Task: inverse folding
């Protein structure tokens, strides 16, 4: 990869964007090093899209500053535009034009010469697996194909930073996997990527570094394992065989760990953080006590908290994660099942 | 069941030497607009159908009742209708511009290192051509339905040129409507305002046949001198041409900066 440039990929200081009385970004501070996939994670309305639009020079900061690879977005927007490729939550391709025509047009608008544009379009078509459909109008594409074409259009100018605003929102599971594979392929070949998502599993799958934002400020930042480590100690989790013994099991766990366990009645699980670094000893103690009380378990173990639990701890809001919403009972689930949340 | 493995090598794509120029960007934007227009039968065919229906209705349905007879009425309203055709087709421009914004296409364009003005220039150039096509086609149908030139062919061509100039002016006005509308539907609704200007003018009947309270609007709004100028050119005079061009330039100068600035917001 060998990068000579030492300027941070992104550097936001007190970045503020207001729309009338609504504050979308409220003095955001963030620094990201080059050479990675950065995920901006947050609930709806947290300011994720506004942040991407500001990086893409579509939105001027109200206050504060933002530099992209050393270039200020307000003072030198053309330099920033030459460095970025934007693919949005809406696939911004022209449906009446073929995949190839779309790519060649975008390449020309990036500043590529005629031959270079043809070459770039051909390279992207081949690499994104669009060869068979490249000559068809993009109106006929599947959701995943259209999203890949949109992704390809952001690549034909050889950008140094790829901006993906909720790249899989509204896609079915197969389409999500197509896009994930493409993003992983890009990251592996050395393209810096900034993506926003409200899917925790997406951040977990793709990102090296995660910034959690809420109400327009960064509330946490780090690698996914750092984030998990910062919030929770390891968790002891037991799946109880007999649902009637759940509360008994919870009492046992509480006695050993000295912390209030969480009871998931649907999943018949009891979960509590281990008291310290010696989680294994506590786990052994819990197993022993459960055996003494004659409580049968299907499964018991020590695990790191999920990003979902981290997110909940940081924002106090349950993020939408297809893996978890399906299990949430009650009215809260109804509001969060949209957007392809079920598997 | 995963899709085929993807490996992408951006290194295979060269970095462009510099941002694209104004002319190239405008040409690409125009080319895309033209492709969309001519590849969507609903867009180009509806224009033709609408023109034929209008000409047919006014010539054969209303024409017989109008003083002077249907044939002479054709000479009156055909130039008027051709001059103001953009008021009927312009709604499509407003809708297309609003759709581009809502669908994220405008955002993509603005994230590219293109000169901002090329987005307006390219769009206007393409719409100028599609409107020109509608004007020529409608004028041809006009002749079919009984319209005849009162002066020379050169006078007729001058009138045609004036109609094309109005087209350019109103295209930018409709572009602004599309940019300030929140959705394509809203853009469509706002474009209906144009009908007020089209009908309360000297296009279909002389303004002095309207009730007194309506006459000031009919006489002094820009469409009336524009239509009158085209009619006068056709019979070889040039009265009202100065006033019509003045309105045209004024509207163009007023609305172009608004279009460029609104586009910038994305």
Result:
């Amino acid at each position: 990869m060998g990068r000579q440039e030492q300027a941070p990929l992104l550097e936001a200081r007190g970045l503020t964007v207001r729309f009338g009385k609504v504050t979308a970004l409220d003095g955001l501070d963030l620094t990201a090093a080059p050479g990675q996939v950065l995920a901006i994670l947050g609930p709806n309305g947290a300011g994720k899209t506004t942040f991407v639009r500001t990086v893409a020079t579509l939105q001027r900061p109200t206050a504060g500053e933002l530099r992209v690879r050393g270039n200020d977005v307000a003072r030198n927007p053309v330099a920033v535009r030459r460095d970025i490729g934007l693919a949005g939550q809406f696939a911004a391709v022209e449906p009446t034009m073929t995949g190839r025509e779309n790519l060649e047009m975008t390449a020309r608008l990036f500043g590529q010469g005629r031959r270079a544009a043809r070459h770039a379009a051909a390279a992207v078509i081949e690499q994104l697996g669009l060869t068979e459909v490249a000559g068809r109008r993009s109106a006929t594409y599947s959701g995943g194909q259209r999203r890949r074409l949109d992704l390809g259009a952001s690549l034909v100018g050889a950008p140094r930073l790829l901006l993906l605003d909720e790249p899989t929102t509204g896609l079915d599971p197969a389409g999500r996997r197509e896009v994930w594979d493409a993003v992983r392929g890009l990251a592996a070949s050395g393209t810096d990527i900034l993506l926003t998502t409200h899917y925790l599993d997406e951040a977990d799958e793709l990102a090296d570094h995660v910034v959690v934002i809420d109400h327009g400020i960064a509330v946490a930042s780090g690698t996914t394992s750092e984030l998990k480590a910062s919030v929770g100690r390891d968790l002891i989790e037991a799946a109880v065989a007999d649902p009637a013994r759940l509360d008994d099991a919870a009492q046992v766990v509480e006695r050993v760990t000295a912390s209030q366990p969480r009871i998931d009645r649907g999943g018949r699980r009891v979960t509590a953080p281990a008291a310290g670094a010696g989680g294994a000893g506590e786990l052994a103690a819990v197993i022993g006590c459960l055996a003494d009380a004659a409580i049968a378990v299907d499964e018991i173990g020590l695990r790191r908290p999920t990003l979902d639990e981290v997110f909940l701890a940081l924002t106090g809001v349950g993020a939408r994660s297809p893996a978890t919403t399906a299990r949430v009972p009650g009215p809260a689930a109804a509001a969060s099942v949209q957007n392809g949340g079920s598997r | 069941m995963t899709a085929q493995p993807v490996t992408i090598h951006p290194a295979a794509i060269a970095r462009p030497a510099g941002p694209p120029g104004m002319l190239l960007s405008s040409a690409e934007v125009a080319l895309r607009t033209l492709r969309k227009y001519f590849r969507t039968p609903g867009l180009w065919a509806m224009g033709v159908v609408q023109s034929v229906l209008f000409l047919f209705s006014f010539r054969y349905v209303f024409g017989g009742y109008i003083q002077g007879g249907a044939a002479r009425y054709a000479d009156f309203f055909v130039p008027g209708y051709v001059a103001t055709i953009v008021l009927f087709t312009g709604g499509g421009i407003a809708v297309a511009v609003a759709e581009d914004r809502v669908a994220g296409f405008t955002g993509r364009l603005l994230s590219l290192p293109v000169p901002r003005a090329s987005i307006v220039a390219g769009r206007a150039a393409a719409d100028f051509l599609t409107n020109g096509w509608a004007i020529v086609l409608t004028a041809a149908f006009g002749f079919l339905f009984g319209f005849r030139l009162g002066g020379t062919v050169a006078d007729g061509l001058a009138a045609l040129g004036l109609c094309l100039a109005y087209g350019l002016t109103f295209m930018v006005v409709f572009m602004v409507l599309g940019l300030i509308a929140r959705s394509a539907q809203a853009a469509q609704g706002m474009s209906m305002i144009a009908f007020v200007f089209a009908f309360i003018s000297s296009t279909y009947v002389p303004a002095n046949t309207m009730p007194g309270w309506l006459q000031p609007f009919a006489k002094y709004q820009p469409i009336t001198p524009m239509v009158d100028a085209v009619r006068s050119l056709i019979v070889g005079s040039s009265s009202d041409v100065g006033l019509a061009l003045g309105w045209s330039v004024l509207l163009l100068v007023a609305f172009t900066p608004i279009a460029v600035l609104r586009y910038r917001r994305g």
